[in-house]
Amino acid sequence: MLKYIGTRFALMLPALFGVAVLTFVMLRILPGDVVAARMLAETGQAPPALVAQERERLGLNKPLPAQFLDWMVGMVKGDFGVSMWTNRPISEEIGIRLGLSLQVAVMATLIAVLVAIPLGTLSALFRNSLLDYFVRLITIAGLAVPSFWLGMLMILGLLTLFRWSPPVTYTPFLTDPVGNMAQLIWPALAVGYRYAAVVARMVRSSVIEVLREDYIRTARAKGVFERLVISRHALRNALLPAITVIGLEFAFLIGGLVVTEQVFNLNGIGRLFVEAVARHDFTMIQALVMLTAVLFAIANLAVDICYGIFDPRLRTK
Amino acid sequence: MSAALAQSAPAMAPEQASLLSVEGLCVEFATSRGTLRAVDGVSWSIRPGEILALVGESGCGKSVSALAIMRLLAKPAGRVAGGRIMFEGRDLLALPEGDMREIRGRDIAMIFQEPMTSLNPVLTIGLQIMEPLTIHLGMSEEQARARAVELLGLVGIPDAERRLEQYPHQFSGGMRQRVMIAIGLACNPKLIIADEPTTALDVTIQAQILELMKDLASRLNIALVVITHNLGIVARYADRVAVMYAGRKVEEAEAGALFAAPRHPYSAGLLASVPRLDQPRAARLETIEGLPPNLLHPPTGCRFAPRCPHRAAVCDTDPVPVERDGRYVACHRAEEIAHQAAAPIPPAAPVAGDAPALLTVRGLKKHFRVSTGAMGTQHATIRAVEDVSFTVPKGQTLGIVGESGCGKTTVGRTILRLEEATDGVIDFDGTNITHASRVEMKALRRRIQVIFQDPFSSLNPRMTIGGIIQEALLVHKRVPKAKAARERTAELLVRVGLFAEMAERYPHQLSGGQRQRVGIARALAMEPDFIVCDEPVSALDVSIQGQIINLLDALQRDLGLTYLFIAHDLAVVRHISHRIVVMYLGRVMEMADRDALYASPLHPYTKALLDAAPIPDPVVERARAPRALTGEIPSPLAPPSGCVFHTRCPMASAECRAEVPALREVRPGQFAACIKVSG
Questions:
Q1: How far is A49 from chain B (nearest CA, A)?
Q2: Which residues have a Cβ under 8 Å from the Cβ of A11 and sit 6 or more positions away?
Q3: What is the mean pLDDT of residues B477-506?
Q4: Is the pTM here over 0.80, yes or no?
Q5: Separation in Å, CA B624 to CA A125, B216, B489, B627, B629
């Protein structure tokens, strides 16, 4: 098992390096200059002499391989550099927002898993029943409705029905659990609905498929309680594909909630991403892309480990 | 002789209470095209400790009746539409689900056909065996584990303690079927229903499993219902045989009586279609022509009439079953037929003289490198084919026989150039094609065609039959235009015994045998000289196998085709082959002309294969010694040293482990790779 994890981990590294190279090259190809853009925004003018001076300070005049090397060395040391726009360390900028994004992602995942697995399973067990039609209807709706629009409806609903709106400033969970939840539960619900819909549909089709397997018939022929047939024999096989979806969705949620964060006025990673792109903030974009890539890689690794735990065939190969 | 056997066997004793009796069982399936009555008023019963064989072709309702007994019919499509199933005085069909669940696995156990898919891949073997013990007998974890170890020993799996922790993928097919039997035996059931328990297994393993089931059933006094399409395999084991056809029982009798003189023409046909190795080779194989009826629209009267050689006007009405002397027959003409001896097909002429070689293979090797380590850093070499040489003369058939992993399919694929040979020479019609370029191969592809094993997955489900055949015609520009392609397709379909109209249909609308005919038509479309037939009949019912082999035989005579015929048992290739190569773990064990090989086999493996082929005659079968061959086929990743067969060979000694025996001509034209045999 350790060997299996080690293999998967080792396979992650070349993929991450590839992402780094691609990001670096693509950002250098794109038109637009962060220094000029910032000076224009700050003072309304960008005299070439000043721009050149500032570029030199930021190291942008060095040859590209040297810049890439600096970046790589920094990352290995845990130093992501400073934002070219705010001049604050990137790790600090990301750190403020990562907690919030992470919490929303975890909450949405919890909601999705807790709702989707039972619902998808029931829907499969009572296929073509009223319950199944209901589940299929709400999951289709979940796929069709954008999370940010659902978010707006939530805010409007809370306002008109309860004359209350969620707090707009972030307080860490440990400082003020109630205030924290009052703010973050809504985006988590809005995002979790779509997430749950994706997972529930996956679980449903996969349970239906597994229930047709010969070994389910064998289990029933042994006189195993139907409850146990489902939980022990069917679900262990059926949840494997759902794990893949959950892992990838989770990673996506951390950096991908651009519009939803806007709607709920959350200062998260998604929003930081958009701002960095708008400002040509190379170092920030690079760091964020790498962060997302690492998160996806970790999520994938977690999925692979889960597969290894649940599927003995992978362990011994 | 058979009369003596009939008397010595226990007579039908109605006074002895039956353990299970199925009375007038009807099972229906709701399909999109109407209701299909898969089982139509079938009755039979079994006494404690008895072995009953339920025999019939695919779709005759035998497996469905078994599932109905277990109340495991696929819901909601399948339902029992009538009848009773009495088990120890209780009607299983009327039991509440909870009570029925208690009976499953405790009193009635079931063993399924596919050992590869019937065990849960993510649970340990131990858990799967212990499950019924903890559920039905309330055993504790330790008690159940101790019993599981005992059970694995009982079914002949060594090293039980360690094996319990393993998962199904770490077991071979035969071992998995043993595990299934262990699960079945777990709670000391009174009845085991085995649904085609050996159909998916290699012949030598099939013999072991059947022997094991028979032995355990009599030792533990378990009644056994064996469901099969092959009458041959039950001759040795069954006390009584019930033959089903198209959802109905057509005959039931004590085994000796039925095998000695079947009364129903269908039973007679089934019996005759088992290829027999103990009798001279006939000019053509016995078969039952035609196909079972579509049960969505069953014919009126006798359902077998359309295929029956004894059909008469009276057969348009339902036959009244006659029960006398412990025999049940549902045929109008049973009495008349019983006194008519079927005219035996005359024996075939001996192998024709020499013809020039079309294909010559010399020293063929095919090695596969497989990665085994965690990072794919360690490699092992599978020697799938090791030093194989043979010649196929024009217009003749070479049979290659061997069990799983013997390399027979790889030989075929290498000749087709679907695999690149590691070493050796493949010479086709005077041209060395071992390393022929793509362009050169393109012309040759037309001349060398293939028929695949699985008629279900080798035809594109989204294309019509006509489309499948025409595609080949048009790609290779065998015909100028689409219209000509259609005409040629119709001609080909008729040539392989189908109807021209079938061009409009899709593969799923055809039976297995019909699909295999389509596969043959597709190969013929290229007007090839040479066809590699890769297990073309092993997925088919015995009664259909004969039809396909007869067709291939006729095509060879009419078109002068040359075949390489790959199969896993000797009975199948005997009819069609002129010369036979027996392979084991990548090497040739024996090579000889057909008649010499069957009359006087040299290699112990050839003898074992011949021995494993069942003979559909209880008198002969029961007089035979127990099967000699034990053990499993070793992994090709770690083949035994020296003679690869020594681990299972009854004659093996220390010398056999030391050196790989060379293939030598022991008798004129008969080669064997064994140091122990002499002419």
A1: 54
A2: none
A3: 87
A4: yes
A5: 51, 19, 49, 8, 14
At residue B670, φ and ψ (nearest 5 deg) are -120, 115
Distance CA B537, CA B455 (A): 9
Measured CA to CA, the distance from residue A93 to residue B661 in angstroms comes to 75
- Alpha-carbon Rg for chain A, nearest whole angstrom, is 24
Look at residue A81 and tell me if it is in a domain: no
CB-based contact (8 Å) between A217 and chain B? yes
Chain B CB within 8 Å of residue A313 CB: yes
- % pLDDT > 70, chain B: 94
Q: Report residues of chain A scoring pLDDT below 70.
A: 1, 316-317
More confident: B598 or A5: B598
A111 and A226 housed in the same domain = yes
Quote the pLDDT of residue B5. Answer: 41
Q: Taking 60 as the threshold, does the pLDDT of residue B535 lie above it?
A: yes
When the pLDDT of each residue in chain B is averaged and rounded to a whole number, the result is 87
Cα–Cα distances (Å) from B561 to B178, B390, B396, B454, B564, in that order, read 42, 18, 7, 22, 10
Task: With beta carbons less than 8 A apart as the criterion, state whether B53 and B241 touch.
Answer: yes
Report helix, strand or coil for A104.
helix
A134 shares a domain with A8: no
Best residue in A222, A226, A235, A316 for a mutation probing chain B (most B CBs within 10 Å)? A222
Are A34 and A111 part of one and the same domain? no
* Token pair listed for B55: 């025999």
* Two structure tokens written together for A131: 């319950």
In a domain, A195, yes or no: yes
Q: List for chain B the helix, strand, coil content (%; round to 5).
A: 35, 25, 40
Give residue B349's pLDDT. Answer: 60
